[in-house]
Batch of 3 targets.
Target 1
Amino acid sequence: MQILDGKQTAEQIKAEIADEVNRIKARGGKVPHLAAILVGNDGASETYVANKVLDCKQVGFDSTLIRLPADITEQALLDHIQQLNENSDIDGFIVQVPLPKHIDETRVTLAISPAKDVDGFSPASVGRMCLALPTFISATPNGVMELLKRYQIETAGKHCVVVGRSNIVGTPMSILMSRNSNPGNATVTLVHSRTPNMADICRTADILIVAIGKPDFVTGDMVKDGAVVIDVGITRVADASKASGFRLTGDVHFESVKTKCSFITPVPGGVGPMTRASLLQNTLKAQALRDQL
């Protein structure tokens, strides 16, 4: 069993991006600029956005963090989004989710210009991904594809089972793995909460990608010997033995699965760092793609 080290791989990607930023500066070009809108003070979102700001600093990007109160109106938030759409200095931006319940996340997503949609969530981005046209791939699926590529894991002709059908991870993951590309060219089965005999299907997977949001959902008896296991999930689980009072757990029961698989991502330190690195990749790409989107 080999660990797919997302933390180390993400550092390699960030070093590559930093080198490219230095080349941009040397030729007098514009430094990429990533902005983030944070509504309210959700603890997990605060941490995630703070890390994104640090990532930008590490690679030499400009960054802007816009903090808005939790009781902001939906229209006021949309006005801020439009200002970023029109700001030529901003190459890409994200609106951190979850949003307060009184704000429609779909309306917010639709309001973001496809040319600056570095999260890859807009209908235009998703449609172009399906057609294999230049676009922004949503950060988590792109991070998984980068891991598979950089560890030279063979995917062509393999059976890939994706557990979970969210618009952010599961569905785009299934499309990317089936595309005529490398990584890709897999035969893909997507399973979800309504799938009967899910465990039986998982046991047929050469590559098992789990993004269902349930801690320790996939156990050793659901995994074929030698399978590649990608754990996208991360959940805080109460643990009195920890100073923080919790531990981070993935969707895969690591201890029972690690003895059966050939490769596995840890939690934390697997897909999470790759998601953040992919956001930087998309921001770097934003200037080159803007005229095409």
Target 2
Amino acid sequence: MTPRLAPGADLQGLYESLRAEYGPQNWWPAEGRFEILIGAVLTQNTAWTNVERAIARLQDKGWLEAAAILAADERQFTEALRPSGTFRIKAQRLITLCRWFEQAGGFTALDRCPTTELRNQLLALKGIGPETADAILLYAFDRPVFVIDAYTRRLLARMGWLAGVGKRQPAYESLRSVFELTLATDVNLFAQYHALIVEHAKQRCRARPLCDQCMLRTRCQTGLDA
């Protein structure tokens, strides 16, 4: 059965409201495609400001290429990631990712890989879950997959739109399918939409929402109840 949101849910209208409020987003914040791969792992369970500090350390060492990371002293590489939190775990995940990347032939070979196959390869790597894999696919490989994160779940729940997919912890793949089947298949749309949700979560839809300042208040169940 095709997953559905609650009656009245309007994903396209939500996107247009977010874009009107915040404007085009320059995402993913990285200087190159490989840096996006690195950032997608480092941002797991931490704030982006911590990721930036870790990436700056890697840049100082010249460790923003797969071959350079694999050739680096593992202890020093691990220490460079300390600002990102759980840095020992992330170091091992990045080393695994770099080995896969090099063995697969880098971007030259991977760009020719079908999206489903590429996603399966990423998910087979230890420490790479659906959210991380989809962020890599969308922002590093320009594949039309939608990234579901905690901010997306929070926003949809507060809007009162999750009834059709199960309000208690809806499955990642169900929510991803909702977006991909409802919206036009467009890489830029997906990238902008996810970035706008993140921006909205930072500015208005926080853990303690600023409903009185939110342009979605009259359409949001949480805003109406505030």
Target 3
Amino acid sequence: MMVFMKRNLKLFFRDRSAVLFSLLAVFIIIALYAVFLGDVWLDSMKALANVDFLMNTWLVAGLLAVASVTTTMGAFGVMIEDKVKKIDKDFYSSPIKRSSLTGGYLGSALLIGIIMSLVTFAAAEIYIVLSGGAWLDAVSCLKIVLLIFLSTLMNTSLVCFIVSFINSNQAFSTVSTIIGTLIGFFTGIYLPIGSLPASVQTLIKVFPPSHAAALFRQVLMEAPMQTSFNGIPVQYLNEFKYHMGVTYSFGGHEITPLVSILILIGTSAVFYGLSILNMSGKR
């Protein structure tokens, strides 16, 4: 399985266009923020101190949540290419177990998602510092790395389950475009969750990747929120958190970080099982 994973990693990173397009949604979000969204939000919050630092960390948290989805989606392009070219039949006729092949696709996608998300995080941290922000402390960096692993694990399982039903490049491109377009809305990046209707807010709250985005925001925005809301009544800070998707609530009860983590772990387990069952059972 390890040899098969290494083969998939080489094929993905050898194709520079695949690597670039796996980050396309990230580039689109950055462009929208720089050209349109950034000025609107900064103007509405200009009374807060260090608002640039605050909103930059909010943007980075969303980028990390999106990157772990789109990069794993791009990684599964290798599996689709194997299906289209009938290469998978050669693998299945070999002595290699079908479960090992499935694990190889899953494992390589997971590693690609983690690597690309870490690169995104490093680049984003440099941008924040150059924009007048501050470096994350060591403990917060460790939390982000662990969240990257957990969110990528969860997104790999979700994406793999979807991709397991696809058998053509055209269908894969269509699904990739749809996911890349919608992921910004479902993680509350294009529009803060507090600006959306109640029914849409509920949909976002039950969408697992949105909980990854909330966890990233809670870590990255902790320091800038303390600075920006220093001396301001705590009720305004709480309203800001709910409006911007830093924290979620159901029925008036706030969703704790532990609940969000359990949602990510549970989603990973369920969809990994379904993916392996679907892919290993095909003939």
